[in-house]
Design brief:
This protein has six helices and eleven strands. By secondary structure, the chain is of the alpha/beta class. The chain has two domains: about 90 residues, Translation factors (Elongation Factor Tu (Ef-tu), domain 3); about 150 residues, Rossmann fold, CATH 3.40.50. The longest helix is centred in the C-terminal third of the chain and has 14 residues. It is globular and about 50 Å long. The two termini are about 30 Å apart.
Amino acid sequence: MTSRTPLAAVVREREVLSEHLLRLVLDAPEGLATTGVPDEWLALTVPGQFQTRYYTVRSLADGVLTLDVVVHEQGLVTEWAQTDCVGQSVGLSAPKGSFLLPLDAGWVVLAGDLTALPAMGRIAQTLAESNLPLTIHAEVPDAPLHDYVPAPVEWHHAESGTSELAAIVRDLEWPEGPGYFWMGGESAQMRDIRRHLRHDLGRDTRHYDVMGYWSGSRGRQARRVDPGPIYAAGRAAGKSDDEIWADYDEARNA
């Protein structure tokens, strides 16, 4: 399957997890296979739309795909997902992921807002038997979702549409020795933390992955720049994920 040839999948279940989080369970089409990378995402096209939106794969196994959708005031998917969408058909791309644990990592720290919670939940599940020390910081507008992430979480409250995640990360006391830091959330704050990690802390890009999931400056509007081709071109050029996301941020702000 190519990115230009979406596969059709049917929504079999819809569940409200919290005020701002919905779960969609779909019959995974034949040919849709997990990459095994725990933060993998795919493009979702909902009925009546041609633009795609990208969502983390919460799980993909035994012919069943689970996506958790953040609910906000407006947007192509969020408005559709709040309707009776069970039985409707959607388009899906092949999953891609970027989480790559270095061989010398002695610890893992995750940080993210509600949009990154599905990825952090799956990463924690993947690392459950690794014996690596795992620290998670989750910033959510709801009450803590204690059963959502299979690991201890330090919960931070934020009003819907706001985030102080960059300030939280800047104040962290980091474990000793080499490790791996993964973060997802609002794009401007992700840029801030990339600069902090590289210039203030001198971290090797192999030891962190920081991704902008949404833009606070423009709200949750239609994407003007599709990250798919930028990601593919960056990979083909041998760029790191940090460099690819920097290219994406630059293209979006051009």
